[in-house]
Specification:
Elements lengths: L5 H41 L16 H12 L3 E5 L15 E5 L5 E5 L12 E4 L2 E11 L4 E6 L8 E2 L10 E7 L2 E11 L5 E3 L6 E4 L8 E3 L4 E6 L4 E4 L4 H10 L4 E3 L3 E4 L8 H4 L6 E2 L11 H5 L6 E5 L2 E2 L6 H5 L7 E8 L2 E8 L1 E3 L2
Length: 359
């Protein structure tokens, strides 16, 4: 038998160990860095709203799976609101006033209440997750018609927020009229002001359903994400319109929204308008008439004039996908934004300091 020379083999072994150790260190460092970045991003997304960090939901593979997941994972985050005092045997289901959705694990609940300030809910009882809870505080948002109430609770199941503005015609949805169940509907389309005149400071896009449902109901997609709140029998306010108000409430303990202060004709959705007024544009926001600029509003103070066409906000185009109000709502009062404006067929940039709308 030939004698093995270990001196010749030791070098390849050492080299392999060094390379393996180096790869392990690099791999660990890369993984740690990746996970660290992911944790930071996740925290940035969830911490400001204190929403629970839920795992992304996959689109169900069948209708049965969608229903089963909705019942087991989503309905527990829907609350039932009772405003009248209970009877000797407690509350009955038919005495429920409306539904709401749990927005934070520590007890913030969102409820659609109409465009006018609702009666106080401070004496109401909230039933969720087999618990009866009292209302500690309430804040009304006149822009969206949503009332936010705070109940004393912890570790509540929360809704997942979807994207109502991206819902498409024919999409099937679940509508929750009471916490005990739901009905099925489909998205029929979008609804806009018939004259095309819209405010820069209020949500203008509404979804429409193919059937009448109870105002105040919640609308969910098949993945169990809430995408809107029913404002009238068939018109739905997309959930994105709520986010700026709720974020302001959590961060500053008050509801405050930015204002530009214009009434405009939405060229993407308005009626046919003379090309003389639009300069051939089919997108943008036309400031039409003397009432198009709010007195002492941010736009007037910055120098905008009637007949101006706002084409973009901070380089984001005003179009069918991103209307003027939807671009403005993502900023805060006091922020400066650059408006690309066309005036008498001449383009110019105007910087506006956004005002504030507080309740």
């Amino acid at each position: 038998m030939k004698k093995i020379d270990w001196r010749l083999m030791i070098y390849p072994i050492l080299i392999s160990l060094v390379l393996g150790l180096g790869a392990g260190i690099l791999g660990t460092a890369w993984t740690s860095s990746y996970l660290s970045d992911y944790a930071v991003q996740l925290n940035e997304l969830t911490a400001p709203l204190r929403l629970s960090a839920q795992k992304p939901r996959n689109f169900p593979s069948s209708y049965k799976e969608a229903v089963d997941d909705f019942v087991s994972q989503t309905l527990p985050s829907v609350v039932q609101v009772y405003r009248d005092a209970s009877g000797a045997l407690g509350y009955r289901q038919d005495e429920a006033d409306r539904v709401g959705m749990v927005l934070t694990t520590d007890g913030w609940v969102g409820i659609e209440s109409g465009r006018t300030a609702p009666a106080s809910l401070m004496e109401s009882r909230i039933h969720v997750n087999n618990q009866w809870l009292s209302v500690q505080a309430q804040k009304f948002d006149p822009v969206t018609g949503i009332i936010f109430v705070k109940v004393e609770a912890d570790h509540l199941p929360v809704v997942s927020l979807g994207k109502g503005r991206e819902a498409h015609r024919g999409e099937q949805v679940f509508v929750v009229e009471d916490a005990a169940g739901f009905v099925v509907a489909s998205v029929k389309g979008e609804e806009w002001a018939q004259d095309g005149s819209v405010s820069s400071d209020e949500p203008n896009r509404l979804l429409t359903l193919d059937r009448d449902v109870q105002p105040g109901s919640l609308v969910f997609n098949l993945s169990g994400e809430v995408i809107g709140l029913v404002r009238t029998d068939h018109a739905v306010l997309p959930i994105e319109a709520m986010t700026p108000s709720f974020k302001s409430l959590l961060e500053h303990q008050t509801i405050s929204r930015p204002t530009l202060g214009v009434m405009a004709v939405d060229l993407s959705h308005g009626l046919d308008i003379s090309a003389t007024l639009t300069s051939g544009h089919t997108t943008g926001a036309l400031l039409y008439g003397s009432g198009s600029l709010v007195r002492s509003g941010a736009a007037r103070q910055a120098g905008l004039k009637p007949s101006d066409i706002i084409l973009s906000v901070n380089d984001e185009s005003v179009d069918a996908s991103h209307t003027l109000d939807e671009l403005i709502e993502q900023y805060r009062p006091g922020d400066q934004v650059r408006l690309q404006v066309e005036r008498a067929k001449v383009g110019q940039t105007i910087t506006v300091t956004l005002g504030e709308r507080a309740p």
